[in-house]
Amino acid sequence: MAIFKRELSGPSFRAFLALFLQVISYASLLSCEKIEMGMLLSSRAMSLERHSEDYCAMYDICGERSDGKVLNCPYGSPSVKPDELLSAKIQSLCPTINGNVCCTETQFETLRAQVQQAIPLLVGCPACLRNFLNLFCELSCSPNQSLFINVTSVTEIDGNVAVDAIHFFVTDTFGERLYDSCKDVKFGTMNTRAIDFIGAGAKSYREWFSFIGQKADLGFPGSPYTISFKSNVPELSGMELMNVSSYSCGDTSLGCSCGDCPAAPFCSDAEPPPPHQMDSCSITIGSLEVTCVELSLGILYVVLISAFFGWSSCYRRRERRGPAPIKKPLLDSINHGEITSILQEDKERPVKMQEMVPAESNMVQFSSVQGCISSFYRSYGLWIARNPTLVLCSSLAIVLLLCLGLLHFEVETLPEKLWVGPGGKAAEEKQFFDSHLAPFYRIEQLILATEPDAEGGQQPSIVTDRNIQLLFELQQKVDEIRVNFSGTMVSLADICLKPLGNDCATQSILQYYKMDLDNYNMYGGVTHAEYCFQHYTSADTCLSAFKAPLDPSTALGGFSGKNYSEASAFVVTYPVNNAMDDSTNENRMALAWEKAFIQLAKEELLPSAQSNNLTLSFSSESSIEEELKRESTADVLTIVVSYLVMFAYISFTLGDPPSLSTFYISSKVLLGLAGVLIVVLSVLGSVGFFSAIGIKSTLIIMEVIPFLVLAVGVDNMCILVHAVKRQPSDMSLEERISSALVEVGPSITLASLSEVLAFAVGAFIPMPACRVFSMFAALAILLDFLLQVTAFVALIVFDFTRAENNRVDCLPCIKKNSSRASDEVSHQRNPGLLVRYMKFLYHVQDIHTRILEHWAVKIFIVAVFVAFSLASMALCTRIEAGLEQQIVLPQDSYLQGYFNNVSEYLRVGPPLYFVVKDYNYSSESSHTDKLCSISHCDANSLLNEISRASLTPESSYIAKPAASWLDDFLVWLSPEAFGCCRKFINGTYCPPDDQPPCCSPDEGPCGLGGVCRDCTTCFLQSDLKNGRPSTEQFRDKLPWFLKALPSADCAKGGHGAYTSSVDLNGYKSGVIQASEFRTFHTPLNKQGDYVNSMRAAREFSARVSSSLKMEIFPYSVFYIFFEQYLDIWRVALINIAIALGAIFVVFLVVTSSLWSSIILLIVLAMIVVDLMGVMAVLNIQLNAVSVVNLVMSIGIAVEFCVHIIQAFLICPGDRSQRMQGALITMGASVFSGITLTKLCGVLVLYFSRSEIFVVYYFQMYLALVLIGFLHGLVLLPVLLSLFGPPPRYVADEKQEENTPPSSQQS
C-alpha cells in the first residue's frame, strides 16, 4: 500500500528546513525588544559602521531570544587574528578563510555544531556541501565580512544591542552555482531531495535565499533575524558582492554522483532508457485511422472472399456442365410429401436416416475405430439391457467409494494460494524477501471522503474543522478496540508497527497533532494541518507521534499536484506487524483484532460518517479471505433454483406430450431426478477423489462445476432417451437399447472425450484456482459420462420397463389397470415432446435447409462468419490482461467500495524494493561502487540508474529515487559527518550529542560537554581509501549504523529506516546475502498499470543486473498476484492450441476422416476467436479464469458440431442432400438437447451474487451457447455442403459401375 514500510524515525527533526539558518543564531533566553534603526543612529554602534577589507560587520554574541536562538553583536570592528588552534579548526571547516577572522571561538563552535546537521544531508555531493559551507562560513567568519554584509536593523536585549536584520550581498553566479549543485542531491532515507529539507523545495536560488532570509516566529525553526539577499550593491557604499569560490556538481575534484548531479558531463551519456512501448503501428486513410493489424486483416478478408467467390463460380460452372448423377440421391428415395407425412403421423417411425432409407442402411461403412466403438456399444447395449441391476449397483458403488474422500474435504480461501502458482518467480522472490529481510506488514485502512456536490458534482475539501474532529472521534473508537485472545486483551498498540519507541506508525493527518485531541486547539486547529502540509519535514509540531515526518500524500487523497488543502479524502493506514507463519500468535492476534476492527467499522464508524454526509470505506489484511469464505454461502439459493430449473427441464424434455389420462405413466420425472442425482454424484465423486489425495477445493468448484456438468450431462441424457424412442416399435427393449447406443454412442463418446481433454488442458494453467477447477471438472465430466452410459442407461431400461408394465412414474409399485396397458405402451413409443415440437417445426426446418442450399446464401453466410472472425481477431488486441479485485468478491461486499476508493483517491503507489543478492562489500570487490550513488560511485550504478528511471515515471513506473542504506552508511562513516559515526576513548559507540547519554531531554538544552566531550569520529580521512571503508571497517561499523538513532545532529542513523534492509546473517564473511533499496511505484489505478509496472521493473532489473554482473530483482507486495499476466497471452494461445490439437487427433482417430477433422478444427477455432471478440466488446479481461473458459468452450463447442458431422458422414446422397439429412436427423437434438439445456444452465448464473460468475460464466457461457448454436446449425452445414468429405457409403456393384466419377467425388 501507499505508505513507507520502514519510516525514517528519530527523536528530533527540527532544524531540517532551517538548520543552516541557525548558524547565525547567537542569543540568550532573555526576552528581547526591537528598537528601530532610526532610534540608534547616534549610538556608538552606528558610529563605528565601516565597509572595507579586514573589517567585520558583526562580531561576538550579544544575547539570545527567548526561544534560545542566538543573536550577533552589530558592532563593526577590525577582523581578528585567531590563535593557532582556532585557525586550524576554522580551516578544517572553512578552507577559503585564511588569516584574520570575524568570529570568536564561541561563534565558530556554534557554527560548527549547527552545520553538522546539514553535512549528513549533503556530504554525498561534495560540491554542494562545499558551496553550502562557503556561504555560511563567509557569513559568520569572513575577515571581509563588512564588504558584503550590512546591518540594517538592531534590537535591544537586556540592555545589549543585537542584530535584527541584515542585507547580504551575493553574486547571481554564486547563487546559481549553489542551487544547481544542490537541487538534485537526494535525501535517500525519505526518498526525496535534500532541497526539500533545507530549502522548502525551492525551484531557484532566489526562492531558496528568500526562504533562508525569513525571520522565524518564536518557537519556530528559521532565522532569528531577517536576511535580505541582494544581488546589487548601493552606489558609493564601498560594498561589493560576495563571490567566494563555487563548484559545479560536475567538477572532477569535488564531483557528485550521477544520482545527485544528472547534468554532470560524465553522466550525460547515461540517459534514461527509452520508454517501453507496445507496437502502435497505424495508417491513416483519409480521416480514418486504422492499425496495421486491422488493415492486414481487412486485406486478408478481401483476398479470402475473392478466392472463395472465384472458386465457387468455377465449381458451379463445372457442376452444371457435368452429367447428372445416376446414383439415386437420398431425398429422391422419398419425396417431400412422404417425409412430411412421416413427420406428421405420430404412429409412423420417427425421422431417422436408416429408417427413411432401409434398403441402403446396411451400406454405411464406419472407420475401424468407429466400427469397434459401434460393435462394443451393440454388445454392451444388449448386455446392460439384460443386467440393469448389476450395472446400476456396481457403477453407483464405485462412485460412492470415491465420495468417501469427502471426509478429507477442505476449501482453500487464502488469496495467494488461490491465484498464485507455486514455484513461480514471484513466489520464490517473495519467499526470499520474507525470509532474509522481513515480511511486508499487514494493512488496515480507512478512507473517509466527502460526497460530491449535487450541482456541479465536485467533491469539497475534507480538510475542515468538523471533519478533523470527526476523525479524532473515529480514531478514539479504533483505539478502544479490545479483543480477548487466549485470556489477554489485545489492542492496536499491541500489534501495530513501531519503528521507534512505543508509538504506532499510523499514517493519518492526526499525526500532525501527535494523535492527541488536546493538541488540536493548542496547535491552532485546521490551520496547523495546512501549515504542516508544507512544513512536515521540519516543524517540530508537525512531526508524528512516532518522531518521523508524515508525507501528506500518504494521509490524504483526491488532490491534484501538491494542493493538499483541496484533498477530498482522509486516508488512515494502520501498519500491523506480520510474520511468515500464519499460525504464530502474532498473526493470530492480528487476525482477531482485524475481525473486531471490521465489525466496528460496519456498526459504528460507517453510520457515524454517513450521518456527517461523508462516505467511509475500510479494509483489513484478512478482509479478502473472509469475504471469499462468505461468498461460499452467498449463492446457495441460486444453486438450489438452478437445479430445480434443470430438473423441471429434464423431466419436460424426456417426457411425452402431457395428457391427463396418461401423464403419470408417460412422464419422466423419476428418470429426470435420477439424471440430476447422477450429475451430483459425478461432482461429489470428483471432489472426493481429489480431496482424498490432498487437493483442496475452491469456491469456483463448489458453485460452477455443478452447473457445467449438469448442462453437459443433460445433452447426453436427452440424446440417449430420444435415440431409444426413435427405434422401431417392433423391436424388443434390449434391441432398442442396443440400436440406440450404436446410433448415438460413438458421437456421445467422441463429444465427452473431447470435453474431458479440453478441460484437462486447463490443468497446465499455473493459477491454482483455475488449474484445480480444470482438474475437478475434467474428472467430473468423465464420471458423468461413465455414469450416463452405465447407470443412466440402466435407469432407462427400468423406466421403459415400468411404462411397458403400466406402472406409475415416481410410484412404480402402483400398477394401472391392465385393460389400458396396450394404449400406454403404444403411447410410450410415441416420440417425445421435443421431437413432436421439432416435427411441428419441420416446415421451418425445411425452409432453413432449403435456404442453405442456395449458392448465394452459402457465399453470404461464409462471408459473414469469416468477417466476424477476422473482426474478432482485430478486437482481440484490445483485450486487457488482469482480473479486477472487485470481480472475485460478492457484489454486496464492503470491499467493492473500498477498491473503488483506492483507485480514486490514493496518490502514492505501492513500495518497490530492489533486492540485491550476495553483495560483496570487501575492499577488493567493486560491488560497492556498482550500487551506491554518492561521490566516486559508478555512473551506471544501481542507485544512479533508479534515479534516472524516476525521471521518466510514465514508462518506468518508478516515482522517486531509492532510499539507500548503503549511501547513508557511507556518509554516516565519513569523518566529514563528524556528528554521526563516533566512538568513546574505549572504542565503543558514541551517539550524537543530542542523544542520551550525551544529552538527556530532562536536563535542559544539550551542550558540548558532558560524558561525550571526548568522543571522536570513528575514522580520520586518512583511514579511508578513496572515501571507502576497508572490509574490516565495513564489517565492524555496519551494526552500529543499523542501531544508530537518527536525530538533528545526525539524520543518517539507520535504525528505523533501515532496520530490516540488510540481512546480517553470515555478513561477517564479507558477503551480505540480501539487502534492499526502497522506492515507490507511481500511483496504479488499473489492472493494466499493475501489470505494466511489474513488467517495467523486471525489465529494468534484468538490464541493470546484466550491466553490473550482479543478481538484482524487484519486489513489491502485489507482484505475486500479477506475475501470471506477464505471459497470459502465451499461456492462453498454447492451451487453446493444445485443446484444439487434442480434439483434432481424437476426432481423426475415431472417424478416420481427415477432411471432416479439418472442418471441425476450423469451426472450433472460429468459435473461440469469436468468443474472444465478444470478450473485447464486453470488456472482459484475459486472466486464468477466462483462459479456462476459452479452453472449456472448445470442449463444449464440440457438441454443437460433432453430432452434425457424424450424421453427415453416414448420410447418403450428394453434399447438399447429406447436409439436409444431417440437420433433419440431429437438428432437434442439437437444438433441444444442447442449446436449450445449456441456456437453462447458464441463465441461472445471471442471478448470482458473485460478480465473477456473472461476468466470466454467465456472459461468456451465454455468448458461447449462441455462437456455438450459430456455427453448429448455420455455418457448419454450409461448410459441409461445400467441402464435406465423401459419404460413408458403399454402393452395390451395379450402381458403382454406372456412377460417374464426379458423382463419387461429390
Can you give keywords for this protein?
single chain, 51% helix, 4-stranded mixed beta sheet, disordered C terminus, alpha+beta, Multidrug efflux transporter AcrB transmembrane fold, 5 domains, elongated, 1306 residues, lipid metabolism, NPC1_MLD, 4-stranded antiparallel beta sheet, transmembrane
Can you walk through the features of this model?
Helices cover 51% and strands 9% of the residues. It is of the alpha+beta class and 1306 residues long. It folds into five domains: 22-261, no CATH class; 291-321; 343-406 and 633-813 and 820-877 and 1128-1297, Multidrug efflux transporter AcrB transmembrane fold (Up-down Bundle); 425-630, no CATH class; 911-1001 and 1009-1116, no CATH class. A four-stranded mixed sheet has the order 1-6-7-10. Strands 16-17-13-18 form a four-stranded antiparallel sheet, with helices on both faces. The longest helix is centred in the middle third of the chain and has 37 residues, at 768-804. The protein is elongated, with a radius of gyration of 42 Å. It holds the Pfam family NPC1_MLD.
